[in-house]
Design a protein that fits this description.
alpha+beta, Alpha-Beta Plaits, 2 helices, globular, binds iron/sulfur cluster
């Protein structure tokens, strides 16, 4: 199962099977795009994304796909 968020041409896809809820993406995102919801990452503030790719790079499970990264 995956969560997909879209906004203004940005797509973030989070693989819920891979995500272990470590919170690294929440901590590293400079614009607070991510939140943990029931111990899994979600990206409710995707409209704030500046496409820096830090979330994709930091995720230890390879759970995040970003169309710009
Ligand atoms: S960094 Fe990866 S494994 Fe950790 S909460 Fe975010 S998506 Fe899940
Ligand atoms: S690409 Fe950068 S700004 Fe966008 S969600 Fe990931 S860490 Fe946040």
């Amino acid at each position: 199962m995956a969560v997909e968020e879209f906004k203004d041409g940005v797509t973030i896809r989070i693989d819920c099977e891979k995500c272990d809820g470590c919170g690294d993406c929440v901590e590293i995102c400079p614009t607070e795009v991510y939140k943990l919801v029931e111990s899994r990452a979600a990206a409710p503030n995707i409209g704030e994304c500046i496409e820096c790719c830090a979330c994709v790079e930091v995720c230890p499970e390879g759970a995040i796909e970003h169309d710009a990264c």
